[in-house]
Write a structure and sequence with these properties.
By secondary structure, the chain is an alpha/beta fold. It has 18 helices and 15 strands.
């Protein structure tokens, strides 16, 4: 008789909050569905919504930097009560959390109260070296999927149940087309060099970083008129991208007077096509380094957020992920008042005019790639989920 009873599908909740996390969550969902016929609920963005999931809410515009930008998220606080009710009623078998530590650590603590196990992919405080800094996370998360060796080491010292899975870029960051094919796709001249301007995926980053980057583009184009420019963004079906109207963004690019286009989708192909990246600090710097394109890392935040950071936090030695992981300034970093059209263009000129500087970045990025683990990253995370489910089944 038991054999005739239909097996209940395992129930998962997968949560991400920013563009990069949404992308990694969506790619993980693709792999998980090969392991079992899961019933997946999700909080995520554009990529997650395209998967076979039941969306609880859309986190596309949740990204915020600093306390003052985060204040804008307060109207979404009622969602916390709805999510807590969901946990109580649906009781998912496992919750998979992807980055976004502020919200997701709240969710970890709620899950623990309900006895729901958690797997944390890109866990909090990824680059700290003091185990006491991750004590709460290590004690609260059921299984930690560490993407960097330094993360694995610190969580291991904090006595977490942690596994080094590697970074999903080793499987995902693969250009599909040649530089010539990509240039033609976006209406660029394949015989002229391209600079990709990557201002970030948050609305606040676009407003803070893009004007300085476009200003640098004008200086570069004046000296080297053969250069073309492209601003890569994720592909969206609606009128907005990163919370900004595409029409407004295209007008801003047109008004710059540069030979510049907006490139939707194919981010790795665009990075591969580009000779140089003018890029905002964040996950994109690691993507660009993995593809192997030399870059100038730029970052600006609002004045109030800068004051908050200087008053309450110890500022890191490096802000760019490639530099953090290599523990050296492999790529130049221009931050706040040092991030101007003039300084950005000067660093770009070094890459254009000094082949040895250009090649050194490429060599450093090759070393970085070797630190990111072996292919099959999402399979390892999926197996961690399956191990928890199998253990639950055995205990029942």
């Amino acid at each position: 008789m038991d054999e005739l009873v239909k097996r209940r599908r395992p129930k998962l909740l997968i949560v991400s909050g920013e563009t990069s996390g949404d992308f990694y969550a969506a790619s993980l969902i693709d792999v998980l569905l090969k392991y079992d016929n899961f019933d997946i609920f999700a909080i995520g963005g554009i990529q997650t919504k395209r998967r076979k999931v039941k969306m609880l809410c859309d986190s596309t515009n949740w990204a915020a930097i600093g306390v003052f930008e985060a204040i804008k998220q307060i109207p979404r606080l009622p969602l916390l009560f709805l999510i807590r009710k969901f946990l109580a009623v649906e009781k998912p078998d496992v919750i998979v959390l992807v980055d976004y530590p502020g919200f997701n650590m709240w969710l970890v603590h709620q899950a623990k109260k309900f006895g729901i196990p958690t797997v944390y992919y890109f866990p909090p405080s990824k680059f700290v070296e003091d185990p006491s800094k991750v004590k709460d996370a290590a004690e609260s998360i059921t299984a930690v999927a560490a993407n960097f060796k330094v993360t694995y080491d610190v969580y291991k010292k904090a006595k977490a149940n942690v596994e080094f899975v590697g970074h999903p870029l080793v499987d995902l960051a693969k250009p599909m087309f040649t530089a010539e094919e990509t240039a033609i796709k976006y209406g660029l001249d394949p015989n002229r060099p391209v600079i990709a301007i990557c201002p970030g995926s948050r609305k606040s980053e676009l407003s803070e970083n893009l004007p300085a980057m476009l200003g640098a583009g004008k200086i570069i184009h004046k000296k080297y008129p053969e250069y073309q420019f492209i601003v890569p963004v994720i592909s969206t079906e609606g009128e907005e991208v990163f919370g900004v109207k595409k029409a407004k963004l295209k007008k801003q690019l047109k008004d710059s007077g540069l030979p510049i286009v907006l490139g939707e989708g194919r981010i790795y192909d665009i990075m591969n096509m580009a000779k140089i990246l003018l890029i905002s600090s964040g996950t994109a710097t690691l993507e660009g380094a993995f593809v192997g394109t030399p870059m100038v890392i730029c970052y600006r935040v609002s004045f109030l957020t800068e004051i908050q950071a200087r008053l309450f936090y110890k500022l890191p030695e490096f802000i760019g992920l490639p530099n953090i992981l290599l523990n050296k300034k492999a790529a130049p970093e221009l931050i706040q008042h040092n991030c101007t059209p003039k300084t950005i263009s000067e660093k770009a000129f070094e890459l254009i005019e000094k082949p040895e500087v250009y090649q050194q970045q490429k060599n450093d990025f090759s070393e970085l790639v070797r630190q990111l683990g072996q292919p099959g990253v999402n399979d390892r995370v999926a197996q961690m989920v399956m191990n928890i489910l199998n253990k639950k089944t055995e205990e029942q």
